[in-house]
Design goal:
single chain, zinc, DNA binding, alpha+beta, two-stranded antiparallel ribbon, zinc-finger, metal-binding, DNA-binding
Length: about 80
Amino acid sequence: MGRLCSVINCSTRNSKVTTERVTLFYVTKDDYLKSQWINVVCAVNSRETNVKFVCAKHFKTEDIKRTYYGSENLGSEVNNADVE
């Protein structure tokens, strides 16, 4: 099975509804933020959910960083818009 958004009624979960490419974000490893992600997704889904990925549709545009400047590649820009 491919990667799916953990939000049950998300249109990106059904390939028959859309062929749109949407970035999927892995749940963070930070324990505090991870618990927040899980709480929100479970509340939206109205049930306990194993949260692995959340698609970009569930974030504010301004909350998504489209570029990353890694410390090992100072000055190098990496575009993550196509990362899934």
